[in-house]
Amino acid sequence: MRALVLLTAAAFFVAQAYGAEIRDLAIGDKLYVQGMLSDEPVYVLDVDSQRHLVKVRSAEDGNTIWVKPESLIYRDASQANDAGRTAIVAVLIACLVAPDACKEGHNPSQSTAQQTPVTSVPSKFRVINQCSHDVRVAIAYDKAVGSWATVGWWTIGADSSQYLQFADGSYAATQNNAFYYYAETPDGSMRWGAPNNVTVGGRTVGMALANARKGLDSELVLTCPEQ
């Protein structure tokens, strides 16, 4: 049952990955039409803003179709989808090998058999601000398998580093190998991100993909252009 819930959650995340904005698309752009099991690479042939549709050609078989821009994602989002699919497959395999570990209410201490952990040590987020300015940071990360969260804002002082910690003392941490981030100086003169639109506290920002290191701190280094 737990494995089925995790699979459903992961599938929902894949289907809800951050879609492209029609105003940002241009003929010739390479994107991906996101799907449940895989994302298909395509090229933009035409953009119909009035009908809110995009004509694309498959890079695999050459077929052309009209799709909604929300179904199109960029390469880094597709890579994050692949990471989520890989993680959920690992959980399913672990459940097949050790079914008792996936039962609801299972307590390893109640079993005489030696249980093998199926998850790695979570990786905490550490932001290193190498700028001579304060920066504000927001992230989108996988709290658990297939359960993504978008949180912000943390202010990191100039020329300093800080773990992303919540008011209750807990840390933002992930077991995934990918996360998204957006950062800016308080006056907005400098920004770090990419065209993966995410809403943080009612505000839409463009987040960039970064890699987390399983079992170690996931360090995000921010360097100002003049440095």
List keywords for this structure.
227 residues; alpha+beta; SH3 type barrels; Immunoglobulin-like; 6-stranded antiparallel sheet; 5-stranded antiparallel sheet; 2 helices; 37% strand; flat; disordered N terminus
Q: How would you sum up this structure, described in words?
A:
The chain has helices spanning 2-15, 75-97, and strands at 30-33, 40-48, 53-58, 64-67, 72-73, 123-129, 135-144, 147-156, 160-163, 173-174, 179-184, 191-192, 196-200, 203-210, 218-222. The chain has 227 residues and is of the alpha+beta class.
Number of separate helices: 2
Oligomer designation: single chain
The total beta strand count reads 15
Largest sheet: 6 strands, antiparallel
What is the N-to-C succession of helices and strands? HEEEEEHEEEEEEEEEE
CATH architecture of the largest domain: Roll
CATH hierarchy class name of the largest domain: Mainly Beta
pLDDT below 50 for ≥5 consecutive residues: which ranges? Answer: 1-16, 104-119
Report the span from N to C terminus.
52 Å
Mean pLDDT: 77
CA-based gyration radius? 20 Å
Strand fraction: 35-45%
And the CATH topology of the largest domain?
SH3 type barrels
Number of domains: 2
| Bulk shape | flat
**Helicity range:** 10-25%
Give the helix/strand class.
alpha+beta
Helix and strand layout, with pairings?
Layout (H helix, E strand, L loop, with lengths): L1 H14 L14 E4 L6 E9 L4 E6 L5 E4 L4 E2 L1 H23 L25 E7 L5 E10 L2 E10 L3 E4 L9 E2 L4 E6 L6 E2 L3 E5 L2 E8 L7 E5 L5
Parallel strand pairs: 6-15
Antiparallel strand pairs: 1-2, 1-5, 2-3, 3-4, 6-9, 6-10, 7-8, 7-11, 11-12, 11-14, 13-14
